[in-house]
Amino acid sequence: MWVCVFGDLDCPWFAGHSVAVRSWQRMFGARFVSLALRRCSSAPCPKRAVTPKLLRVQEALDVRDPAECDIKVQGWVRSIRSQKEVLFVHVNDGSSLESLQVVADPRLEPREMTFGSSVEVQGKLIKSPHKKQNVELAAESIRVVGSCDVLAFPLKYKTHQSLEYLRQYPHLRCRSNSLSALLRIRSEATAAIHSFFKDNGFMLIHTPILTSNDCEGAGEIFHVEELKSTYIISLLFSILSSQQPCEHAHEEKEAGKNPHFFDIPVFLTVSGQLHLEVMAGAFTKVFTFGPTFRADNSQSRKHLAEFYMVEAELSFIESLQDIMQVMEDLFKKVTDKVLSACPRDVELFHKRVAPGQEVAAVDLLVPEVGELCGGSLREDRLDFLQSRLQRLGLEETYQWYLELRQFGSTPHGGFGMGFERYLRCILGVENIKDAIPFPRFPHSCVF
Known about the structure:
By secondary structure, the protein is α+β, with helices and mostly antiparallel strands. It has helices at 2-6, 12-15, 18-28, 30-40, 57-61, 163-166, 177-199, 229-241, 247-255, 273-283, 320-341, 343-347, 382-392, 399-403, 419-427, and strands spanning 53-54, 69-82, 87-92, 100-104, 118-127, 135-146, 203-204, 210-211, 223-224, 266-268, 285-293, 306-315, 361-366, 370-377, 412-418. The strands form 3 sheets. Strands 7-11-12-15-14-13 form a 6-stranded mixed beta sheet. It has a 5-stranded mixed barrel with strand order 2-3-4-6-5. It has a 3-stranded antiparallel beta sheet with strand order 8-10-9, with no helix packed on it. It comes from Varanus komodoensis (Komodo dragon).
């Protein structure tokens, strides 16, 4: 009885819980507790059950000397091959292009396990006898977490599906080799971009998505408008019942004194440049990396309605060469890190690898992609900028922008790079819609 209550005197638990032992001594008496602990000191410590270590597939594949360690992997079945003596299952969890081969007794195969099923496999990681793989998992148990209807599943075993076909299933195409490889590259490139700017002394600025500015003046912008909840409910009801939405529900929006939620028209941002210029006036070197939006009614393989932009601004520079150098260094360093970190994923893709009236600007043009980067020196002369805004009738709207030139302005410049265009450039992806997880373009915003 005392063994069950107090455990082993030599057990490390008591060494780390002296406070608890003293508390028992106060409650039951020092002599009683001392006797109890002596009584149970000869009893062996119960052995704890070994809990298999959960590893990602990539972590398991990277093990050089497995030494039959107990592990557990979770992922999706990429292939099943059942023989008389042995069962082979390839499991992938998205961490690697390669799958981990599982070898097991055929009697362990769950009846509901099929291609696409999610599974959890426990066993011993052992050295593989095959030359093309270093390790394999000798399964002791296989559990199906989620079954998969193979007939209805759009991805088929050992069948090549084109990117055009996969585009019809944006919620499932990330399970394909091509898109999962691209998204791993995208993740690595994102980390490399942040690392580059941090290593070079830039501060990250979160520029707003909602803005009253159209910094590029293209006019191809999305207008943000508030919808009352009653109108949304009415609209959903009309869709489900094939009836017209209730008119008075929308009239609530017009009942207020000002039709705009922000009192002024607001748009989805087309660039963070203007906000970066504000911050460059305080932090010298700044960058942002986030979504931008263009209402460009184009179905071309080069355009998206929503895409990601890398933008930077630098103060105290007077030469376009300074901007060009940062653009070049960014491209080289990020590409080098991507190629070294994701060699197998990259293999899946075919690689293609001033005075007067002039503007001090530069564009980096790439075959098949078009403009990859665009940069310029910004106009820091107050009188020139004020005159230009007056001609456009925008002086009042951009008064805040003029004030930046009044209070300690510096010569400055910056550039922007389309992230999806960068991925097209280094990977040779034909259509930009296949360089982003959930593409948005005219007449297509599935969910």
